Amino acid sequence: MTDRPAHDVPPVMGEEVNGPGRTYFDDVVIDNMLDALLELSAAVWTYHDRVNVLERVLEKRGISVSEEIERHLPEPAELEARAAERAALVQRVFGGFVRRPVAGLSFEQGK
Question: Which of 32, 42, 77, 83 could be 96's S-S partner, Cβ–Cβ 3.0 to 4.6 Å?
């Protein structure tokens, strides 16, 4: 096994808005899609895992989770908080799509 990457990455890359971001491939659009997929996958697993733990804890305390969820009616403050959390998730997952190479500029590592 070697420490070299699978493909050669040129030392000078196009500088992007808000920094270069992670580089996986030669195309920034593909890199952005991969960043979004990785972020979304991490978020889905985290939420899935936490919901499973919560359901087990509640069931041990004799609370029927499914029935309680179906009966729950959120207050306006809760709806507002949910909207803010949803907006933050969308920004984390899809925020990378705003990166674009800036024509004529270059980024040299170490400078």
Answer: 32
Cα of 107 vs its chain's centroid, Å? 25
Q: What is the DSSP letter of 61?
A: T
- Per-residue model confidence (pLDDT) at position 35: 83
State both tokens at 101. Answer: 């190479």
CA 105 from centroid of its chain's CA atoms: 27
Q: Within a 10 A sphere around the Cβ of 58, how many other Cβ atoms?
A: 13
In the chain, the N- to C-terminal Cα span, in Å, equals 30
CA distances from 81 to 84, 86, 96 (A): 5, 9, 24
Tell me what pLDDT residue 28 has: 80
